[in-house]
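Person: Please work through this fold.
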Amino acid sequence: MKIAIYINNSNISNVDCSDLTKGNPGIGGTEYCILLLAQLYKRYYPDNQITLIASSKGILPEVDDIVIENNLFAVPQTAKSIAADVLVVSSVFEGKPLPIDFFSAVEAEKIKTITWGHNFYLNDFCNLLVKNDFICANVFVGHQQYDRYIDHEVIRKSTYIYNMYPEVSEPFRKENDGKTVTYIGSLVPTKGFHLLANAWKAVLAEVPDAQLHVVGSGKLYDRNSKLGAYGIAEESYENSFIKGITDRAGELLPSVHFHGVMGEEKKELIARTSVGIANPSGRTETFGISAIDFSSRGVPVVTIASGGFLDTVENEKTGLLYHDTKDLAGCIVRLLKEKEFNEKCGEYGKEYSKQYAPEKLIVKWHEVFELVLKGKRPAIEMPTNFMKNNLKQFRILNRKIKNFLHWEYAISVIGIETIGRNLLRRLGH
């Protein structure tokens, strides 16, 4: 079997990505997962061939071959030219869904393709996947993301495989000082840092010696971004939260520390952390790998009970999930003050994170590749948990009605949501 995996690495070509099993070297989660799949599939299935189709030369993991192709629309042709049996491509390109012309290229080249859902899909994108005969499978990265589409026909091509996370070694957290809080993520609106910044003074009111460490930058996804006066994030976004972490004179609070983009060295900081914060807004989180960054080293996590975090954080066991962002500060304070509870969450988290170990998940990727080669589709799995989340009950009911009436292309909940979203955009909201 010859598998081609596409990576748009033009923005990270100077980052050492030669061994992703050591941890994220300071790149976006999507890029990390793509390169980790290439490296680990070759390790576990050495008889199969892996070719990375990359947009830039870069410093990439060892696979059978690396082909440079900087034109997205030529990627299917490149995969065909190297006689690939299957092409794997992320469903997001430069922060947006794959454009329609890419799907036209896939169809023109008749290359069997697997889309990998590192972002949420709207109805039109789902329809593109359904109608293209050479999109043979679609892999979501989480159970909750998969359930979101249970009543759309895209589910007939879909499965879900959690993102792999190599088991970590030392250092694990050995000391909980009851004051160190660490955020990991890009400093852009969709990653929710503004919520943490605006809650920080409330945390200090309860725990005066608390310290906030921030790993990430407004340049994590775009190294060319122009930052604001404090050099933290893009100017308009920086202005939206800066008052929460500055004093009356406009100086950064002494309790707030920005580390910028970090690679492997961030594990030392995590090992000194009492509470880890992953995207407080939950927006865009199909999985939430930053939560596993913390749990795997024994640090409890605080974030919102939404999206992919329902797959990666277990409330009251690996940390705390809130439903209202007004409760963010209170959850942080509880874990800082309740040391025994904090320790229990940390210890449980180390075991919990092992479910994402590569040896457990790479097999599922191999199964998907074999299904595609055989011309078969994954079995549909009906939702089994968090039934009150994200209108899931209505999605299930709609699926059952459509099955009973043998309707394939009737309206779906994601279809209604997309119509509503587009209407709000036209109204300027």
Q: What stands out?
A: The two ends are 48 Å apart (CA to CA). The mean pLDDT is 94. The chain has 15 helices and 15 strands. The longest strand covers residues 2-7.
